[in-house]
Every structure is written in structure tokens, then in C-alpha cells.
Amino acid sequence: MGADLTVRFRRLIIIGSGLIGTSIALAVRDHCADVVLSDRDPAAARLAASIGAGTALPGGPATYRGAAADLAVLAVPPAEVPVALFEAQKHGVARAYTDVASVKQAPMAEAAGRDCDLATFIGGHPLGGREKSGPLAARAGLFLGRPWVLCPTGESTAATVAAATALARACGARPVLLEAAAHDQAMALISHAPHAVASAMAARFVDIPEPITRLAGQGARDVTRIAAGNPLLWLGIMSANAHPLADVLDDVARDLAGTAAALRTAGDTAVTDLLVRGLAGHGRIHDSQKAEGS
Amino acid sequence: MGADLTVRFRRLIIIGSGLIGTSIALAVRDHCADVVLSDRDPAAARLAASIGAGTALPGGPATYRGAAADLAVLAVPPAEVPVALFEAQKHGVARAYTDVASVKQAPMAEAAGRDCDLATFIGGHPLGGREKSGPLAARAGLFLGRPWVLCPTGESTAATVAAATALARACGARPVLLEAAAHDQAMALISHAPHAVASAMAARFVDIPEPITRLAGQGARDVTRIAAGNPLLWLGIMSANAHPLADVLDDVARDLAGTAAALRTAGDTAVTDLLVRGLAGHGRIHDSQKAEGS
Which of A97, A225, B35, B234 is the one with CA 20 to 30 A from B243? Predict the structure, then answer.
């Protein structure tokens, strides 16, 4: 589980000094002589620098004056990845580039459309996070023991793959190679759909009277906990993974509508079927996680 | 928050020595001179007695030989409440009767149809539980600080209401008076629908390959945690509250299908609307719970 120390970075550039970018900067401090922080809001980069995450640039990649870094990490929202990659490559700030966005296909296609260099780029998605955001919420241990998915572009060089893999290991994460399409389908299933389902359940609580809300127990709170996420952030994530997510939501909706119809006609079989499949599916992600922790 | 000690029971009869019945018996030990335990399986009652929950009857209410108890608690599944009430009243084991089932309208209507005495009965639903079952999973503190809904039949006498209220307080719970219909609608919203929704989400995980299940994080696990419940037990609960539950599930299904359609056509407004309503609903049950804990 310990970080792989065989690759040390000389210089790393983090573009986007929010929760994820700053957490990566803090995590790699011991593996990198020089961490440079940038953000479209220079105050965010300075804030990250003030907690020891590295040295702040006065502006975007254009303001960088040093030698090309070993790796540039684009820690910006999914929709901003293509432009951020184009800008960073135009200024040649690094020899390899990766991002941290939770969707991979759409940004990669748009980057290709903008004539970005896909040989020095590899998609990345560290599966760690918190409900808070911004550089002051950053923690060096955010990715410890978590999967870090890496999606080569098809043109990614071996050196690019190696640099991103070393970054994941330096953060204490477990690199997992996946095709971009497989990643997006997986995220639709295990991250984006659960969020939409939690929201759709929580939406039912908007109008219920106070004495009733006080009857809610741990079950209702667990099912709806992640509905607390920032709607604008999640709109961006869901829109960027629209079709794989829509397929999963249609399946869930069909199951629930079918269960409702069965309940109205005392169709025990369909209700039992849902509960049995739910129990089996629960075992898939709760058991494997237990094995993971051992 | 401390238990109300103004009413002390002389004798209590618990019919059904599972998790809930045995937990009630353990909770009232200090408020009741004599707790009598019964179960259709005499071994369960003996097991409950062996951990200090009270004295076991050799069989059902017919085997009870003492004076009428202050209160009989029917701690049996929803579908068995009417028969259990009828039997207990036929043998006159107590002066008042209550149950612990998580649905109230259907059992109450069936009890009326069986000519049970609705003056000495009041529906009860303590909102505590665990994922384990059986007498050995029982804990005296299971209901501490939790709501305990009481649903008068319309004929319930003041003495009956007082006895059930005193039981809830003796268990450290907070009595909440509600009409049976309001209770069932509330449970459909905050308990039964969240369970069905968790099952429908978890059902999507049945066929996904191992490496993908290992990407699942805390969000996916929280949303699906309660899908681990016993399918037969939940079939009974959902069937007994079929129509109020079906209404909620149809609403959730409609929201999810609408979100899927909006995603396919880049209809940001509908997606944002779901996320914003989800956030608002989340605040309703998470905030009120915080206030509750203070």
C-alpha cells in the first residue's frame, strides 16, 4: 500500500488549485522538489501556496517561466479540460499532461477536436473527494488507498502513462487502467446514477410537514446523503456523461414503476424480485469493498 | 430526554420474542415488576428469558395463567397483528393492547373485520431497529431518543392511550400521536420508498464485472446500504402499505425517467431542477435531525 518511490518528480505543475489540485500538491510534496500552483483565480493559488502546497504562479500557464515540468495536472471541471489542455500545451509547460475529471470520453473527444497533442496526454480520475471544496479543504491523504483510473487516449506515449501512474502512486492511490468508454459507463453506474437517485428520493421530502420529517431515520438519511452535492457541479458532471447515465436512470425508473404497478395489483413476485436483485447487487459492492480493505 | 417514571407497570406481556419484542422487554425491566414473554416458537421466548428479558410462557397467550397484564405488546410482523390481537383479547391477557408494526391502516382494518375490541387497542410503531434480527440481537437502548408513533383506532380509550404512551416513555422513546393513514403515508415516504429505491439502484450492480465494483465509493454504498434488508420481511412491509408506497415510487420513477430524457436532449433545466429539489429535500431531513439531536 505504501507509495512507490521509484519515480521522483523534479517539477510538477498543478493547474486549478481547488480541493483536488491542492490535495494532489500536498500529497506529492515528499516526492517532488518543486510544485507550481496555478489557478484562473490567482487568490486560490496563493491560498493553496499559503498552506504549504507549493509555489503560486501569478496567473495561468502563460505566466510560467521555468523549464518544462515532468507532468502538468489539469485539476479543473470536466467542461474546462479541453481548453486548459490546449492552453498548457501551447505554452509547453510540461512534457506530459493528465486531468482529474470524473468523465473521460467527452473531454477527450473535444480535446482531439481542438488539435491538442494526445500523445502527451492521458486522462486521469482519482476517486477521492469530500463534500467541501476549495484549497482550504484539501488533505494530503485524500487519495490514500483509493483507485485512480487512468485512461490512455490511444496515442498516449509510454512516458506519459508512466508519469501519470507515478503521480497516482505518489498520492498513495491505486492506479487502474481503463478505456475511457468503460470508465464513463462505470461512473454512470456507481457514482452519477446513485447521485441522481438520491436526489430523486430526497426531492420527495421538499413538501412534507415538519413532524413527519422528524420521523426520518438513518436509512432515509443514508439513501439521500449525497443529494447534498453542489447542483451546478453535478449538472456539469451529469451532462458530460449524459448517455451512459440516462441508460442507467431509465433502468432504475423502469424497475420502480414496475414495482409500483405490482404493488397496486398485489403482484408479490415482481416486488420480491426487486428486493432479491437489490440484495444481490448490494453484496457486489459491499463485499468487494470489504475484501478491498483487508 | 430521560424516561418518564410517573407510570410504572405491574405486569407486561410481550407476544413475539424477536428483536423488537425482546428489546422492549429489556428496556422496561426497571419500570415493570413482571415481564412475561411469549412466542409461537417457545424456544425464542426461552432464549429471550435467558438473557434476562423476563419470564417465558410455554406457548401462546392461551398458556398464560396470571392476572390480566397492564399492557400486551404484539411484537409480530404486520400481517400477523390482527390474529395475534384477536387471540390475546380472546384470552383476556391484558387490559390494553398495542403493536409495533411498521404499517397501521391495513392491520387495523383487518382487526376491525375480525371483531377485535378496538377500544382497548392502539397501534404503535417504535422507530428503532437493527439489520440483525432475533432475541439475541436485542438491546435495551434500541428506542432511546427515537420517535414512537401511536395511532389510536378512533375507539381507543384514554387508559389505552396512556398505557402505550407510558411504554414508549419507559423505553426512552418520544411518543408521537398520528392518524393511521398519516403514519402510513409518512412511512411510505421516509422508510419504504427509500428501501425500494436503494434496491432498484443496487439491482444495477448485479452484473457488473469485479474490477468495476471495486471503483464504488462511499456514495454508492450509502445509497444502497439498506438494500441489505431481508427480502421476505420487506415484501411483507411493502405489501401491507402498497398504495401509499406505489404513489411515491411512481413519483421517483417519473423524475428519473424525465431526467434521463433531459440528459439525452441536453435539457439542462430539468436536470438542474432535480438536483436543486434533491438538495432542498436533503436539507429537510438532515437539518431537522440535527435540530433533533441538540
Answer: A225
